[in-house]
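so im writing up the methods section and need the Phosphate ABC transporter ATP-binding protein record in one place, dumping it here so i stop losing it
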Amino acid sequence: MAKRIDAKDVDIFYGKFHAVDKVTFSVPPRSVTAFIGPSGCGKSTVLRTLNRMHEVIPGARVEGNVMLDGENIYASNVDPVQVRRTIGMVFQRPNPFPTMSIRDNVVAGLKLAGTKNKKQLDEIAERALRGANLWTEVKDRLAKPGGGLSGGQQQRLCIARAIAVQPDVLLMDEPCSALDPISTLAIEDLIAELKKDYTIVIVTHNMQQAARVSDQTAFFNLHGVGQPGRLVELNDTEKIFSNPDEKSTEDYISGRFG
Ligand SMILES: Nc1ncnc2c1ncn2[C@@H]1O[C@H](COP(=O)(O)OP(=O)(O)OP(=O)(O)O)[C@@H](O)[C@H]1O
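--- predicted struct ---
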């Protein structure tokens, strides 16, 4: 299940624009890593290279290696669709299929991959919804549309959908930015639960959230205006927020810029 990520000398481009300059970092299995940094420094871009979502943008490309338990996900014989299956993603805005039932939303990926057995799909839906801390709230309305849930419930539904296919890694791009504080706490509690089984990387603008949920934190910054983003420092979250190695990290977390 949970796997280790090692990114080495990763350069990321949008056409001619060099968005991210040579990032190297590792994420241990069963841990949460938070990406923080000012707007435009490349956090989401780096996140999307971890499951080959970056290259779906026309003209976008990646140089360097991203290893999943030692296997390069950019090797020529690797199928990007399979990579996206084993490295799931949850987006900023909850994006359930609004008219599809709650149950079918959860198992959509499995049905697409050819699983037809109704009993098996029901069991997987229940397991994933329990895993996403949503089961008790929806168990009596599984046939109702996913779009009828609250924003926080929809985001947990999207997490259930992501874990239903049993990924090795969960990538979360500001998963709470569209949610109220109570729903945010529910997602943060869920992240703490999920890290027992998954490797998690989360982009967040909320530094308290990074401090609350993550084991290690990566601070990204721009080289300068119009320059690529870079990884300034990755360290234990406690260290980043108490005694970072780099002055720019300290300036950022203490609110002196960004
Ligand atoms: N689809 C795209 N096409 C061209 N350039 C892009 C695209 N997406 C992002 N960029 C550029 O890449 C750089 C990094 O953007 P990215 O969204 O990764 O930053 P970020 O740190 O996640 O920002 P934010 O915190 O505002 O979400 C920015 O200069 C951005 O304008």
